[in-house]
Amino acid sequence: MKRGFLNSDKAKKALSSTSPKVYDASADKPPLVMKLPYGKVANAGRPEGYNSLQVPIMEMAAECLDHPEGAVLYTSIPIRRSRSSYDDEPTGWSECFITSSVKRQIYETVGFCRAPPQPERVNFRVSLTSDMGLGMFATCSLKMGDLILSERPLIVSPAATRVTFQKPSGFTDEQYTQAILFEREKALEECLKRMFPESRKAFYALANSHTEDGSGPIVGRIRTNGFTVGKGFYDKQYGETSGAYSATCDKLSRINHSCRPNTTYTFDVASFSFQLRAMRDIKSGEQLFCSYSTVTLPAADRKRQLAPYGFQCTCASCSGDTANSDRVRTNHIDLISVNRAEYDIWAGIPRYLRNNSILQSSLDLLSDVENEGLRATAFYPLLLCTISEIYAQLGDTANANLYLGRQEAWKIARNQEPFKWDEIIAKAKRNFKF
Ligand SMILES: [Zn+2]
C-alpha cells in the first residue's frame, strides 16, 4: 500500500477514529469539483490514517428509471441480462457510473437504444508508431466525412472529480485530494468487476500517464484515455462542463493527438456510441489523429491542456514560431465573419465593376484555416459556403459544387447542421463598419 503524508501523531490518532463526513452540499457549500494533480506527486496514494468512506451506492434493476433524485448507480448500457453474451450485443456494453438523472436523460433520448452505425469495411488498424506508442492508421483511402469507427465505450463515469465528503480534520489540501482520488478509484472498481473479461483486459491494456500522482489504475487510465461526452446528458446541478461524463474506449482511445487533426469524433446518445470520421481526405497508411486540446487556443494554452497526458506536442503549430498559427486559431471566427461580410458587399456590386480578388483572399484564408486543423470548428462550413457562392457568382459551377459538397461532408462528419450565421455576420459588419 502506498504511504501518505500525514505526519503528526496527533492527527493520526484523530483520523483513525473519525471517518470523513459526507457533504451536505446545501449546508457546507463545498467546491463542486476538484482540480487533480498530475506528474510526480510526493507521497501519492491514500493518506496514512485515512478511514475510507462507507457510502452505499445503489445498484438498481436495469429497467428502473425512477431512482431517487441524486442517487448514483452502476448500470450497463444497453440493458444487460444475467445470461447475456457478446452474441446478443456484438457492439458490447458500456459499464456506467452515472446519476439517476443522467440515466433518465439517456433513456429518454429519441431513438435510444438503436444499434451503432457501422462502416462498410474495416478501414483502420491499431499498431505501433515510431514515437507515440500505439496509434490508429488508415488501411484504405478515406474521403472527408467517411465513417472510420463506431464504438461503444468500455466505461462511462463523471468527467470531473466531484467533492463528496468534507476535508477530514488535520488534513492538508494535498491529502484531501489524495483521499478523494482514492475514493474515486474504489467507486470505479465495481464497473470493472461488472465487465466481461475481454473488456476488462482491453481496459487494463490501455496506456496510463497517471502512475505517480495518486490516481489508481482505473482512474489513471480514464484520465489518460477518456473522451468527454457532455452533449445529450450531463448533471445539470454541476453545469454543462463539470457535469459532463468521460467515456473510455478500447479502440478509439488508441488514437493519438495532433493540434492539426485529420479526424473528428462525435458521440451519439441514441446508439450510445462514438463515431470517428475523416475530417479531410486521408491516404491509406496515414496515421489518424484527433485533438485532445482545444484547437482554437494559442500554443501556450494547448501545451498546458496537454501537460497531464505526459507528452509535448511537436506538430508544426506547436514547434517553431507559433505567432501566425496563434493568430489564425484565436481569430478564426473574426477572420471568417469579416470574409463573409466582404463577400456580401462584393456580391452586391454590379458584375462589370467587380474586383474579383475576393476569390483568392477567401482561398488563402481557407488554406490557413485548414493548415491549422480547424476543419471541425463551427465556422469552417461558413467559409466553404462563401467560397462556393463566389464560384457560383463567377459562373464556375464545378467548383461551386465542389465546395458545397465539402460543406455537406462537414455536416456528416460533425453530425450537425451548421450554425445560423446571420446574426454573427451582422455583428461582424457592425464591428468592422462595413
Ligand atoms: Zn501541436
TrEMBL record:
- What Gene3D superfamilies does this protein's entry cite? SET domain
Boundaries of each SET domain copy?
Answer: 120-293
Pfam families to which the protein is assigned, alphabetical: SET
UniProt xrefs under SMART domains:
SET
Q: Which domain of life is it from?
A: Eukaryota
Protein name per Swiss-Prot or TrEMBL: SET domain-containing protein
Biological source species: Crucibulum laeve
